[in-house]
Amino acid sequence: MRSLGRLLLLLVAANLVWRWASQRRSLPCPAWLAWSLETSLTDRLIGTQATLDRLGLRPGQRVLEIGPGPGRLLIPAARRVSPGGEAVGLDIQPGMVERLRARAADAGVSNLTAILGDAAQPNVPPESFDVAYLCTALGEIREREAALRQCYAALNPGGLLSLTELFPDPHYQSRATVRRLAEAAGFRLEAMHGPWYFFTANFTKV
Length: 206
Ligand SMILES: C[S@@+](CC[C@H](N)C(=O)[O-])C[C@H]1O[C@@H](n2cnc3c(N)ncnc32)[C@H](O)[C@@H]1O
Prior knowledge:
Elements: H1 2-22, H2 40-45, H3 48-55, E1 62-66, H4 74-80, E2 86-91, H5 94-106, E3 112-116, E4 129-135, H6 144-154, E5 155-166, H7 175-184, E6 187-193, E7 198-205
Parallel strand pairs: 1-2, 1-4, 2-3, 4-5
Antiparallel strand pairs: 5-7, 6-7
The protein binds S-adenosylmethionine.
């Protein structure tokens, strides 16, 4: 019991240190930790299906994820937009992009493209996506406002921007912060799903 208490204390301390350090310099979730986002236990613990359901994806849509990591969400998203749809993931870390490509190939998903790049300069065609989303990635991006303006440019008129945050992710962003940043980029809030510790804010490009 005492060991469990110590472990929990250690985890909380590590989380606080990471959060503090990442406010000073860019500290994205390292690629060697990608495995932690790939297990079925993770899917259950951090609500992969619920997050996908909140996106309301339909066959034929084009969907963009900024910061997909190894594709916990993007690989099933690519399946949900099939047939006829496309999924694109843009990540700043080469290790994550390689892992995403390998996992999509292993899963037999052929309508997914993984691109290496920065959310603030994504280099994707304007007005070419129906849905853009970020999950536990916004807080890792240094130029968050620029990144959301780029999502605005990449979406078709009326397109959906979906932002999901989970506590205690060390880069957790509050509902108020997410709303302020998205509205500053020109989006209108449509719906807020879930409690503060696992919420998805959906916005429309107006
Ligand atoms: C915590 S992981 C989340 C992965 C995935 N969204 C999920 O929920 O399973 C955050 C990801 O955002 C990526 N990232 C951080 N800063 C970025 C930036 N400026 N542009 C693109 N991706 C970025 C990281 O490399 C990492 O893969």
